[in-house]
């Protein structure tokens, strides 16, 4: 049993976009909205979503356009955070959700902050998973090295080996079964056989064609009045510990947790992650 309903909605520009809907849509508590990283999709949040929905809380987990079961955009330069923020706000409006708690991994955390700027009343709380106002060039270079450039594996063992090679420095303690699970959230089967990355390779083109870096501190300031948790992988090559210290100085009620033996980004099935997210939600619910 999947544990969720697979649904679609239509974006403002006519794309059929996918989301997973966990828990009880009629639950009176605030829903949790999970937003994925650059080349990732809703599958990344399965463990967290099932955990949070176990007592009926609604969890909404979309695939951004160009990923997973969502349509690809014929205009690849639409693959930018403001587009994803607009899509997410459109999805929630279509569901009648006027307030929610957001969990954003990497890119999803940037999108969460943009939503808080554009529609402040919508964001009741935020979890920033290994993302902050400053991005370490080493992590950006690693992501740019594979985004849109991955080869198509012949089978799941080859897919797991490819994922392991890219990410071993960030997840040194994962076992073989975990790498296969990791791969199954990244690749999809081709009709003619074999596998391919489960995203539009032009996402990488959009990333590399982007303009100069944007100052994200004013974007982070959009969370000034929002209960916020930042999770940092202790081995992260994207979110430096020094950046987290500056975030704490800028937002005194920020809660920061370091997740051991994880880099970019924590998988959100770790006991430390689940406990910290649960504590933030309980604080908002109170």
How does this model look, in words?
Keywords: Hydrolase. InterPro entries: AB_hydrolase_1, AB_hydrolase_fold, AB_hydrolase_sf. The protein is an alpha/beta fold and 286 residues long. It has one domain (4-141, 217-285): Alpha/Beta hydrolase fold, catalytic domain (Rossmann fold), CATH 3.40.50.1820. The chain has ten helices and ten strands. It has helices at 46-53, 81-95, 107-118, 137-146, 156-167, 176-184, 202-208, 217-220, 241-250, 271-285, and strands spanning 4-10, 16-22, 32-35, 59-62, 100-105, 123-129, 187-189, 195-197, 228-233, 255-259. The chain has an eight-stranded mixed beta sheet with strand order 1-2-4-3-5-6-9-10, sandwiched between helices. Strand 7 and strand 8 (195-197) form a beta hairpin. Helix 2 (81-95) crosses helix 3 and helix 5 crosses helix 6. The chain is globular, with a radius of gyration of 18 Å.
List its traits.
two-stranded antiparallel sheet; AB_hydrolase_sf; single chain; Rossmann fold; AB_hydrolase_fold; 36% helix; Alpha/beta hydrolase; 286 residues
Largest beta sheet: strand ordering:
1-2-4-3-5-6-9-10
**CATH A-level architecture:** 3-Layer(aba) Sandwich
Q: How many DSSP-defined strands?
A: 10
The largest sheet, given as strand count, sense and whether it forms a barrel, is: 8 strands, mixed
CA distance, first residue to last residue: 32 Å
And the CATH topology? Rossmann fold
Order of helices and strands: EEEHEHEHEHHHEEHHEHEH
The coarse overall form would be globular
What's the CATH H-level superfamily name?
Answer: Alpha/Beta hydrolase fold, catalytic domain
GO cellular component, one term: membrane
Keywords: Hydrolase
Pfam family, one: Abhydrolase_6
Protein name: Alpha/beta hydrolase
């Amino acid at each position: 049993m999947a544990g969720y309903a697979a649904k679609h909605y239509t974006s403002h520009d006519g794309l059929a976009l996918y989301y997973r809907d966990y828990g009880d849509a009629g639950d009176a508590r605030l829903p949790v909205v999970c937003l994925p990283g650059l080349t990732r999709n809703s599958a990344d949040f399965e463990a967290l979503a099932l955990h949070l929905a176990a007592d009926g809380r609604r969890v909404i987990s979309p695939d951004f356009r160009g990923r997973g079961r969502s349509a690809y955009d014929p205009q690849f330069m639409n693959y930018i955070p403001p587009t994803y923020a607009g899509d997410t706000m459109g999805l929630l409006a279509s569901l009648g959700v006027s307030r929610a708690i957001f969990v954003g991994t990497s890119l999803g955390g940037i999108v969460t902050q943009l939503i808080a700027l554009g529609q402040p009343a919508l964001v009741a709380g935020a979890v920033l998973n290994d993302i902050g106002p400053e991005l370490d060039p080493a992590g950006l270079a690693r992501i740019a090295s594979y985004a849109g450039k991955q080869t198509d594996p012949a089978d799941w063992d080859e897919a797991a080996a490819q994922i392991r090679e890219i990410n071993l420095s960030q997840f040194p303690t994962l076992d073989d079964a975990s790498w296969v699970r990791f791969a199954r959230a990244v690749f999809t089967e081709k009709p003619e056989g074999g596998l391919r990355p489960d995203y539009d390779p032009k996402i990488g083109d959009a990333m590399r064609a982007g303009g100069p870096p944007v100052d994200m501190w004013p974007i982070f300031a959009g969370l000034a009045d929002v209960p916020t948790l930042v999770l940092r992988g202790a081995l992260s090559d994207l979110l430096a510990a020094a950046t987290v210290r500056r975030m704490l100085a800028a937002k005194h009620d920020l809660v920061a947790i370091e997740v051991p033996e994880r880099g970019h980004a924590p998988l959100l099935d770790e006991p430390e992650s689940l406990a910290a997210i649960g504590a933030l939600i309980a604080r908002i619910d109170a």
